[in-house]
Write a structure and sequence with these properties.
The chain has about 425 residues and is α+β, with helices and mostly antiparallel strands. The chain has eleven helices and 16 strands.
């Protein structure tokens, strides 16, 4: 990999910065100082805030009923709120602060057997090919669909139209990976032990639930209370209303569904590894946790409604998973239970390039260099450009920035990366 080529564009932008760019940088620094001066806000940053992120965080500070805001080192802008934020309120629930992929999170399981020596290059290609056949991306075929024992019952949903969607879309998508930044990886730790890691969520069901309750807030149905941020988009439900309580219950259903989805993905992938390599899943090592959800929690003796958007729970002693990128490393961590961070940590390395920026600056050749040594489907290269390793922060810097939030237990390098593009 040619480091000079990969860094050249960034160096040229710095040397040739316009007066407008320098002014914007100064404005971001001033806004960061203002944000840091708010006693409700605590930041764990891997680098200074850029202008878009600083403005988005400043809007979040102005949310009605905001009690606490914790900002993780992988923070970056998203459609409604920043990824890598933890919002605590006392009465209002913000569905858009979680977004449509409710329950999105990470799962991992170790494989027992020969270890990494069982996965020589030829066998890695074979495993990747079999994953493509047995781990669906978007939907499962009707004849292979069944409601998993681990999935929440359809009748647990409070709204009838959501139950109907679960019977249709939920059934067909249970055990599917999805696209975007979702992935399934075969990894090896420093001792040569093989692990599976999956990143996925609640698929169409999370989007359906989020859309339903955002519309409820938007139209002021029943006793819904609405509250907007400066851009007039972020809407709230009161926990004291039926709609607010129903949202909490139905988003928890999506959290359980997403966990069952990841478990089913791991079971399917483990079956491939067992058949092709003789590696068997050790379910005693299984770890699962979401990083997009809202729930009632107590911190420092106070009760809060805690919204995590791209932030992992990190209670004292809690096992956690922080992926880096498909070309670098991921980490297994243990939470330190930092109350100021609302017992949270980053959920990954965090993007430094938007998808549009990535497609302009990452070529297929650069992607190949960044994924050297990792088996992946080269036919998907064009779809993978906006998820290239260079799109993400250096995970080492992110972990260093949150040393008081988590302790690193082990590091794992990717061996096979399976994605839907």
């Amino acid at each position: 990999m040619n480091d000079f080529d990969d860094n050249c564009d960034g160096e040229e932008r710095t040397r040739g910065a316009t007066r407008g760019e320098k002014t914007a940088e100064g404005g971001a620094k001033a806004l960061q100082i203002l944000i840091e001066s708010d006693p409700r806000v605590k930041l764990w940053l891997a680098s200074g805030l850029d202008g878009a992120t600083a403005k988005a965080l400043d809007r979040l500070r102005q949310l009605a009923d905001l009690q606490r805001l914790a900002v993780m080192p992988d923070v970056h802008p998203a459609a409604d709120v920043c990824v890598g934020t933890v919002i605590a309120t006392s009465e209002l629930i913000y569905p858009q602060a979680i977004g449509g992929d409710i329950g999105c999170g990470m799962s991992t399981v170790a494989l027992s057997g020969l270890g990494i020596e069982a996965l020589h290059e030829k066998r890695r290609r074979l495993v990747l090919e079999q994953l493509g056949r047995e781990v669906p991306i978007l939907t499962r075929s009707a004849r292979h669909s069944a409601w998993s024992d681990g999935a929440p019952a359809v009748d647990m949903l409070r709204e009838k139209r959501l139950s109907k969607a679960a019977e249709r879309d939920g059934l067909m998508q249970l055990g599917t990976l999805g696209r975007g930044n979702h992935f399934l990886e075969v990894q090896a730790d420093d001792d040569g032990r093989v692990w599976l890691m999956v990143h996925s969520g609640s698929r169409a069901m999370g989007q359906t639930i989020a859309r339903h309750y955002t519309n409820a807030a938007l139209h002021g149905l029943g006793r819904t209370t609405s509250a907007r941020h400066a851009h007039g988009k972020l809407l709230a439900l009161s926990i004291g209303t039926e709609e607010g309580r129903n949202y909490l219950a139905d988003q928890q259903w999506a959290v359980l569904y997403a966990a069952a989805n990841r478990r089913k993905l791991l079971v399917s992938a483990a079956a491939v590894l067992k058949r092709e390599c003789g590696l068997k899943a050790d379910w005693e090592s299984f770890v699962d946790l979401p990083h997009n959800f809202v729930r009632l929690e107590s911190h420092g003796g106070l009760e809060f409604i805690v919204h995590r958007k791209g932030a992992s729970p990190a209670a004292s002693g809690q096992a956690g998973l922080i992926p880096g990128s498909a070309g670098t490393f991921s980490a297994h961590v243990e939470g330190r239970g930092n109350s100021e961070a609302l017992c949270s940590s980053s959920h990954g390395a965090g993007r430094v390039l938007s998808r549009g920026e990535a497609r302009k600056s990452i070529s297929a050749g650069k992607l190949r260099r960044q994924l050297e040594g990792v088996a992946y489907d080269e036919r998907m290269e064009d779809r993978m450009l906006d998820e290239a390793p260079g799109v993400y922060r250096d995970l080492r810097v992110v972990l260093e920035a949150q040393r008081d939030l988590v302790r690193v237990v082990r590091r794992l390098k990717p061996v096979i990366s399976y994605k839907g593009g």
